[in-house]
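Standup notes, protein team

Yesterday: finished cleaning the Didymodactylos carnosus set.
Today: Sidoreflexin structure.
Blockers: none.

Input for Sidoreflexin:
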Amino acid sequence: MSYPPFEFGKSRYDLNTYWGRFWHFMNVIDPRTLLVSNTKLAECQKLLSQHQSGTLSSTITDKDLWEAQKVVQAMVHPDTGQKIFMPFRMAEVSKNSFFLFEGYVPFGTPIVVGMLIPQASLSQIIFWQWLNQSHNAGVNYANRNATQVITITSSIHHFYLVLHIKNTPISKFAIGYLTAVTSAVSIAVGLTLLIRRAKSLSPGLKTVVQRFVPLPAVACASTCNVVFMRFHELFDGIEVIDQNNNPVGVSKIAAKNALKEMAMTRAFLPVPILFFPPIIMMAFEKNLLRRIPRLNLPLNVLACTLSFGLALPLSISLFPQKSKILTRDLESNIQSKTNLEYLYYNKGL
């Protein structure tokens, strides 16, 4: 595998194309980074530090640098510098706004398996939907925006230090969490009861339909989560920048586009995860699992893991992280500040 010349803080794939983003995310969900020791992490950080200071040994290759950067970005929060708890690792690289999910798939897969238990009781449905949204909430909080922007202003006799904290309040995470749990449990339980009481469906068909109940529940909950947590952006706006990442202004129109793209991404994410495993398992149940029932759980886990690992890059690659918008489509006050045809915004995740 060939490696391009190393660029600090950037991806080695073309993030302007769908398949470039797809292969980028396929690379960064590598679960092997979960096994990296603190000693190896320190070595990777030292390697990147030497590259930045120009003291790098001539024996170090581009591959070494790309792999070192992947390890550091996977394990360390870009704003706080602290290691992220493994089950919640989904680290954003602030400078270029792409994300790492190596802890999301292996720790999320058991939850998916639980949600897809055939003929689950109501208590099991509630438990697994709650656990899924709790895991998502932990991921959201562990990877929250924790930047600090310091500006210094002066007067004739004094200097004033002003510290602006750009940190998402815990209250917004709480609102998103409660909304997601409520919608997921309500839809899952409601659809399950509706299917069980449907007289027009045969017992066999009821069993098949019930396998797909988690899909609308999770899709709706994920969409509600992101909408409620970022709803304030529709009123406050988000920053738009030029191609060199220089701020141009704050736009409510860009915020609307970003929220729409995010909602579509979150709604699509559960589709491969919760749609394909039931189909795969039903195909095996006709022959193999009748002869060897003990393979039921291993095959279910394998189907969920493969679907989860594929669904993540497929969904989050739908839109560029740094989305482009025509300047003429933005507010007039932003148009008056620049002659550029296009501006950009970070859609979030």
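Follow-up from PR in the comments: The chain has three domains: 1-115, 119-221, 232-349.
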